[in-house]
Specification:
It is built from nine helices and no strands. The chain is mainly alpha-helical. The chain folds into two domains: 1-54, Arc Repressor Mutant, subunit A (Orthogonal Bundle), CATH 1.10.10.60; 63-197, Tetracycline Repressor, domain 2 (Orthogonal Bundle), CATH 1.10.357. Helix 1 (3-29) crosses helix 4. The longest helix is centred in the N-terminal third of the chain and has 27 residues, at 3-29.
Length: 198
């Protein structure tokens, strides 16, 4: 391996270590407690080294959120591909979204700015709208199959996204005072009623 390749590999390794350290700190202390100094201490480098790779903390958060959206996108596609009918696909996609949110709480909070400022303003990429696009496709196909007005697909799918994201946000951010009935059963009933309404 040449000198250039070795240096490039070292730079990639340091960059990955910075992102991993930031995510690990967030899991133990929360996103609000994250700082460039803490990240530098965690990887045993000086803060200026971290700034060589990322302009500021927000740039680090944006990279991590992109990783989260990418992981979510993969899970949603896997769920969709297991089923043939748009109804089954819609249920599976919503289930995968729900499961991802609660198995990857730190990612989800960062991706959607729950309890913190959302990062990545003005830098949206395709993965950001993956869930909305997939439920739109299923909604459109169900509406078309039922002979209803396909012009309603956008409005209806947005309503479903809002309901699902809203339920997750409430459960994630207000665990102390939400009703015990607000759970996966509520989600399943919501999706079932949504499909019947199309």
């Amino acid at each position: 391996m040449g000198l250039h390749e070795r240096r490039q590999r070292e730079k990639e390794s340091i960059r990955a270590n910075i992102l991993q350290a930031a995510f690990t700190l967030a899991k133990t202390e929360g996103w609000g407690a994250l700082s460039m100094r803490k990240i530098a201490d965690a990887i045993e480098y000086s803060a200026p080294v971290v700034y060589d790779y990322f302009e500021n903390k927000e740039a680090i958060l944006f990279e991590i959120s992109l990783d989260g959206f990418h992981k979510l996108h993969i899970e949603l596609l896997k769920a969709q591909q297991k089923h043939d009918t748009p109804e089954e696909q819609l249920v599976a996609i919503v289930d995968a979204y729900w499961n991802f949110a609660f198995k990857n709480k730190e990612y989800y909070q960062l991706m959607f700015g729950l309890g913190m400022q959302c990062c990545g303003k003005g830098q949206m990429k395709k993965e950001f709208s993956s869930f909305q696009e997939l439920i739109y496709e299923c909604t459109y196909e169900i509406i078309k199959k039922n002979g209803s007005n396909p012009d309603n697909a956008c409005h209806m799918s947005h309503a479903l996204f809002s309901a699902v994201h809203g339920m997750i946000s409430i459960m994630m951010m207000r665990t102390a005072d939400i009703p015990s009935t607000m759970n996966k059963t509520t989600l399943d009933e919501t999706v079932s009623a949504f499909i019947k309404s199309l």
